[in-house]
Write a structure and sequence with these properties.
2 domains, 8 helices, two-stranded antiparallel ribbon, seven-stranded mixed β-sheet, Endonuclease, Chain A
């Protein structure tokens, strides 16, 4: 079980204030303060929220006293609920970046599939991306006119012959491959600066071959 010492240490490693942790864990700053000063013993549900917040920030806990920041790891998200968790992770990661670095590039996109698997989270996600002034460049198949995120995204068409069924979604130091299937969706999120930069270069190369869509 997560200890008070580990919570404090994890905050220090991430340079998070108590308010930062509260926002990431959907708790109150007062509640976090009481947990850390020992005046309130958290229940298992609260601890799971705190641990999940740190997990999304790539903090791994070791036993009852240790922790470390993961690097170069892969997180796999299976199914619609996990897909939404991935998008929440995108928002939280982007929010921590300087505004001029909040760019996301996405290739082989069908917004119909994103909307299908996001479900009721679609509008929330779009509102959040607008709120933090994220900028998207999105490549869709030639002829596709579903530009649902056009408030903050620049869409371009790619020739159908060059279009692929596996989407990739790149931001910050994360490169995610998204496999949409008939009955589920699976995301492989690779947290590696080198790999993210490779896919970014790959995206820029493909982007140079795209055309402006006819709206």
């Amino acid at each position: 079980m997560l200890t008070i010492e580990q919570i404090r240490a994890a905050r220090a490693l991430l340079d998070w204030s108590q308010q930062d942790l509260a926002e990431h864990a959907d708790l109150s700053q007062t509640g976090i303060a009481r947990i850390e000063n020992g005046t309130n013993k958290p229940n298992s549900k609260t601890l799971k929220k705190i641990e999940a917040a740190f997990d999304r920030a790539n903090i791994e806990f070791i036993g009852t006293s240790g922790l470390r920041k993961r690097s170069g790891q892969i997180n796999i998200y299976n199914g619609p609920e996990e897909f939404v968790k991935f998008l929440i992770k995108v928002y939280e990661d982007l929010r921590e970046l300087p505004e001029n670095e909040r760019e996301v590039v996405v290739n082989n996109v069908s917004e119909d599939l994103f909307i299908k698997w996001e479900g009721e989270y679609v509008q929330t996600h779009q509102n959040r991306m607008n709120e933090i002034k994220a900028r998207y460049r999105i490549i869709v198949q030639e002829g596709d006119t579903n530009f649902t995120a056009d408030e903050y995204a620049n869409y371009r068409w790619l020739n159908k012959e060059k279009f692929n069924s596996i989407s990739y979604y790149i931001y910050g130091d994360t490169a995610a491959l998204i496999n949409f299937k008939a009955d589920t969706v699976r995301v492989y999120a690779i947290h590696s600066k080198d790999i993210a930069e490779f896919y970014k270069r790959e995206f820029d190369s493909v982007w140079s071959e795209t055309t402006d869509p006819i709206k």
